[in-house]
Specification:
The protein is α+β, with helices and mostly antiparallel strands. The protein has one domain (about 5-35, about 95-225): Butyryl-CoA Dehydrogenase, subunit A, domain 3 (Up-down Bundle). Helices cover about 50% and strands about 15% of the residues. The protein has six helices and nine strands. It has helices at about 10-30, 95-120, 130-155, 160-165, 185-210, 210-220, and strands spanning about 5, 35, 60, 65-70, 80-85, 125, 130, 180, 225. Strand 3 and strand 4 (about 65-70) form a beta hairpin. Helix 1 runs antiparallel to helix 5. The longest helix has 27 residues, at about 185-210.
């Protein structure tokens, strides 16, 4: 018989697992890893909101994508175009970024799997006599290690030709040149920290769902158990 067990700690762990998976996925897909050096706008270009000249635009570069402005001859208007610069894996700008993409993709796949499984932990608490929380926590720890490897290798690719075209000639491995780090890089770091927090917190979720209070409610014949 399936017993639906909901506790504050197990629900918090489930929500954190889902948030971490989505945060890492969004960061990976974003082009806002590097913010390039400012490109001055033409004196003819006018900001439609203020009526004054447009501020210099800073293009962005991701692991496999980029955002830049494309000029239109009519009315000197410019549109921001975002999309992948690499049509296939081999066209990613740096071998280090290729490795980063692999490690991040593996870590994100594990996190998404755990996030999916975590939804069902309210009804299923063990698999083959092993706590599903402990198994998921172990997987999250492994995913965190893959994410760390990817984030460590990423700055080593700042010396590639693609990064130099965005960040200037002084850009090199672990040196940003004229670039700055975008929100996607910080989101990936924050998600990695939360991944390890989730891995540790999974033990608390397991304790909460196997407590004496829960066992007492099961013995009383309750199928839906909600505890603070």
């Amino acid at each position: 018989m399936c017993h639906v067990i909901v506790t504050c700690r197990s629900m918090l762990w489930t929500l954190l697992s889902i948030v971490v998976a989505f945060a890492e996925l969004i960061a990976f897909m974003s082009a806002d890893w590097l913010i390039g050096k400012a490109k001055p706008s033409s004196s003819e270009e006018v900001d439609n909101r203020t009526g004054g000249p447009q501020e210099p635009y800073r293009p962005t570069l991701g692991i496999y994508g980029r955002c830049t402005r494309i000029s239109h001859m009519q009315f000197s208007r410019r549109d921001t175009l975002c999309g992948p610069y690499a049509e296939n894996f081999s066209e990613i700008a740096s071998g280090f970024w290729q490795a980063t993409a692999i490690f991040l993709a593996i870590g994100i796949m594990i996190l998404c799997t755990v996030a999916f499984v975590s939804v069902f932990t309210m009804c299923v608490q063990s698999i083959m006599k092993k706590s599903i929380f402990n198994v998921c926590g172990l997987l999250q720890g492994i995913a965190g290690l893959f994410l760390i490897l990817g984030l460590i290798l990423y700055p080593a690719g700042w010396g590639c030709q693609k990064a130099i075209s965005y960040c200037g000639p002084y850009a090199s491995a672990y040196k940003l040149g004229d670039c700055s780090l975008g929100w996607a890089f910080y989101t990936a770091i924050g998600g990695t920290v939360l991944t390890f927090i989730c891995a540790v917190f999974s033990a608390q979720a397991e304790i909460a769902t196997s407590s004496d209070k829960v066992q007492e409610e099961i013995e009383e014949g309750k199928n839906l158990i909600c505890l603070l």
